[in-house]
Amino acid sequence: MSHLVDAKSMLDTRGLYEGPTVHGVNPLLLIEKIIRERIFESLYWKEHCFGLNAATLLDRAVQLTYIGGQFANQRPTPFLCLAFKLLQLQPPKEIVLFYLSQTEFKYLRALGAFYARLTFHHVEVYKTLEPYLSDYRKLKVRGQAGWRIECMDEFIDDLLTKDRVCDIALPRIPSRAQLEDLEELEPREDVLGSEGEDTETEGEGDD
Length: 207
Hints:
Keywords: mRNA processing, mRNA splicing, Nucleus, Spliceosome. It is a single chain. Helix 7 packs parallel to helix 9. The radius of gyration is 17 Å and the shape is globular. The strands form 3 sheets. A two-stranded antiparallel ribbon has the order 1-2. It has one domain. By secondary structure, the chain is mainly α.
């Protein structure tokens, strides 16, 4: 139970949190309280997330076979549990970019993208995630309504444009058009027009 106590002790419920913050708050608070509690109570968290660090979490992440938020009786997916563990660990940006760069393990890339969207500065979010709009591999998604198939580029687009993904309310970010008007971003090149782009065909075996 020590890992559960350690995780809960990090929560900023009394304004006493003094660790590194993300968007000005304790990073664990980026996940709503009710979902945090379900993660703490889940079998996957208790059995597979104890003692993980940014390196050993990689071993768990490459075993993922689907993404999603909650399913069945509002049970958190392993994907969501590992995302929460990343918020607890707060790995260096270089580690997150390493997750994203792995072409063989598409669910590891999806996990890295989700974490980057939750924690990176808004300009970094666009610069980091937009290159993966050219990744058209299929992802299995598990949710309350059951299973569905979604392509990686759809998932990335959802992260950039929607308020909630995988049942989690994402931090608000300006639209790309607003950032272009402020000259914080250059107009985006059409990835479809770039010949020779890596369309990430590796790692399709679980489809």
